[in-house]
Amino acid sequence: MNRSTKDLLLTALAPVMWGTTYFVTTEFLPAERPLLTALLRALPAGLLLILLARKLPRGSWWWKSAVIGLLNIAVFFAFLFIATYRLPGGVAAVLGAVGPLVTAGMTMLVLHTRVPLRTWVLGIAGVAGVSMVVLTAQARLDLTGALAGVGGAVSMATAVVLTKKWGLPRSAGPAALAGWQLTAGGLLLAPLALLVEGGVPELTGTNVLGYLYLGVVNTALGYWLWFRGIGRLSVVPLSFLGLLSPLTAATVGWLLAGETFTVWQTLGFAVALGATLLAQLQHRPKRVEPVAPKVLAKV
User: Fold this and answer.
1) How much is the pTM?
2) Which of 128, 154, 158, 186 is the least crowded, having the fewest Cβ atoms under 10 Å away?
3) What average pLDDT does range 29-46 have in this prediction?
């Protein structure tokens, strides 16, 4: 296995882990606490990664980490859990699947890089495939939840493109960068969560296990792998890996929640997975050295 393939597979583990978020949130966590859940997912994971990396930001990375933390953690996590609590999993997943299209648009605006037509076509195919997998006739649309889902996709796409533009810091690796932005995002979420939702409710053992999983596996490990991938993969195909999240969510629902999987859903699964794979093949992964933050991978 060459280095590019290894980087791709390790990065793909992150959205696979994130695909379990909906199941864990609805089955293990207290109801109607999206901001608290976002806070408890982000801040402990960020502090853990900083402790392991033993690195603090330097120079401009103080404000850059705050910006990334705001977009990729505080805003994205808050919108994610608002959408999760207010929408059926299928609708939330489809809104999240627009990520590759939003990332392509942000790539043009921020990186001033032309995005090929085939990338837009694959992005539309990805959304269509995810829709076939997760949408049902009973799916309801909540306006607040829908706006949160779209806002989360835009926020995360912007953070990914900005991270690619700025590169990884010279003095630290992906674990430190993930820790900085998770901590920044968690600190920004803390006063909002306490003001809007009050203090931490009495937690059951199931709640604690759910939060531990979200914090350690889903977030600390997941975001370390994701930021490692940002430093090594091209930004647009990287965004297509996000389609693995709703596909994983559907698979988890089938395996653990007793949900059915029809021929139509299987076809949609194949379409979305095919779009993800084709996006990787048409953009051969190129490794970007962390010591050259101004050098960008070709998108």
Assistant:
1) 0.81
2) 128
3) 90
